[in-house]
Design brief:
196 residues
Length: 196
């Protein structure tokens, strides 16, 4: 955020109590506030946006189809967030395969550890999210949806023998669909920026 050293002024020529300039009407000066809002990213081209949204939706529908076939819920909210990252922001460190796969596994480990130690309360879920954030930071696998995975585990108590393999497989599927989708559309950023 930058601020100007000298405040800019705006004039109001209708204010008769304002000081006058020898060459013109009265002027009112008031300082302008510094810019406190950031700049939003550029709007993506319609074809790029359509491609990213379609690819992410197809990946999520694939998870639902797998879940329906094996009678297990494979699509969990953190995976939807991961799909959005890998398809719509494929160059970010949070979207790279290392962060997606290892991040979710670390989030799961944090969730199960905290749930074992503290139970399934919302307080424990908040602690699990913090532990997951610490683990992913230390492991250099930043992935914010992994914190949500820890919360889901504490609050839902899924059986680890079933949940962890499904989570691992789902993250691999997200990475592979992002890899494939980035090679289909000409001019799309290639995913991943790095594998490990």
């Amino acid at each position: 955020m930058s601020t100007d050293a000298v405040p800019r002024t705006e004039t109001d020529p209708t204010d008769s109590a304002a000081p006058t300039d020898s060459a013109g009407p009265a002027v009112l000066t008031r300082p302008r506030l510094p810019r406190i809002v950031g700049r939003a990213p550029a709007r993506p081209a319609p074809a790029a946006a359509f491609h990213s949204v379609t690819a992410a939706t197809a990946a999520l529908l694939g998870l639902v189809a797998i879940g329906a076939a094996i009678h297990e819920p494979v699509l969990i909210p953190p995976l939807a967030a991961s799909a959005a990252l890998v398809h719509c922001a494929p160059t970010l460190p949070l979207a790279q395969p290392r962060s997606v796969v290892v991040g979710h596994l670390l989030g799961a480990a944090a969730g199960y550890a905290v749930a074992t130690a503290a139970g399934g309360s919302t307080w424990a879920a908040a602690v699990a999210a913090g532990v997951a954030l610490a683990l992913t930071t230390l492991a250099r696998t930043p992935h914010s949806p992994a914190c949500a995975t820890a919360v889901v585990i504490v609050l839902q108590s899924p059986a680890p023998g079933r949940f962890v393999p499904l989570l691992f497989g789902a993250t691999i599927l997200l990475v592979l669909t992002a890899f494939t989708a980035s090679r289909i559309r000409r001019g799309a950023p290639k995913y991943p920026a790095y594998w490990w």
